[in-house]
Amino acid sequence: MVYPFYLLDMLNRLLFLLFSSVLAISAFSIDRGAIAKQFEILKDENVSDEEKMKVNKQLQDSLYALISSEDKVLGRLYSEFPNLGRAISDDKKLCVYSWGFSLSDKTYYYGSIVQSMKRRKVRTSVLKMKNGPYIPRDDMRIAHDNWYGSLYYSLIHVKFKRDEYYTLIGWSKNAPDSQFKVLDAARLDSKGRLNFGKMAFKQKGKPARYRYLLQYDANGRIAVNYDPSQHSIIFDHLAPESVMFTDIYSYYGPDFTYDAFEVVDGKWVLRQNVDAKNKQ
After folding, report:
1. What is the pLDDT of residues 136-191, one digit of tens each?
2. What is the distance between the alpha carbons of residues 78 and 98, in angstroms, rounded to a whole number?
3. Comparing 45 with 21, which gets the higher pLDDT?
4. pLDDT single digits (tens) 210-230
5. Calpha distance 149→236 (Å, rounded)
6. SS3 of 11, please?
7. CA 209 to CA 280: how far, in whole Å?
């Protein structure tokens, strides 16, 4: 039987309203107090790794359902859960939530949910780890289902002519004796999933790379921040305590000079030994 066009259109509208209502009811029924408690469990050093992994899966499922119900606004949940990190792009079309918790071996485990806006509709996806966190190489693309794990705190939209992508700045501790900050270039696919890997980082005399890592001592601190007024990412230059520790990143730390990546024709170009005061 062939139905008139207007009946099919009406049926589609009714199905959309029904689906939206189900999402709204599901979001309302999610216990926000339980989510807050799950975050607290992940922070507890007396809880076993096995129990934390179980709680983290429950937390991810609850957050995904809750975030999926927000079909018009990006980043709404940030103030509701203090342990949930959030980075929103400057074009307001991408939001990356991330969280992490320590394990008994002094490394971290992570979770992340991505919201993207397309044609006024918000799409939601999950960054997944296949075999746990790892230190990513700078010469490989990384799919949304093989994520390395990071807490992202800055998200920059880069557009040059017809090409556009997003740059994320994050922190990770995926080894017991060192940690790293990462600058990564990523794009959204047709389903709103975030995939990492664009040769956007250029250094003089070297081929372009998919990402840039700053690895340093597990107990150290470094600054890596985006300055929108200069279209630059400014960061501490790292050096080993002694030349004998070259490439042993647990002995790396700031040497009180600064470098920067500046956007040139849609790529991030490294500038060494910049005046950080003039850049801020």
Report:
1. 999 999 999 999 999 999 999 999 999 999 999 999 999 999 999 999 999 999 99
2. 10
3. 45
4. 999 999 999 999 999 999 999
5. 22
6. helix
7. 26
Specify the pairing of strand 267-271 against strand 201-202: parallel
Residue (of 212, 227, 217) closest to 182 by Cα position: 212
Question: Which runs of consecutive H residues, i.e. helices, occur in 69-164?
Answer: none
Greater pLDDT, 205 or 152: 152
* Distance in angstroms (rounded) separating the CA atoms of residues 210 and 207: 10
Among 219, 206, 208, 216, residue whose Cα is nearest residue 247: 216
Q: How far apart, in whole angstroms, are the C-alpha atoms of residue 212 and residue 200?
A: 9
Buried b (16+ CB within 10 A) or exposed e, 181-210: bbbbbbebeeebbbbbbbebbbbeeeeebb
Q: Helix, strand, or coil here: 153?
A: strand
Q: What is the DSSP letter of 249?
A: G
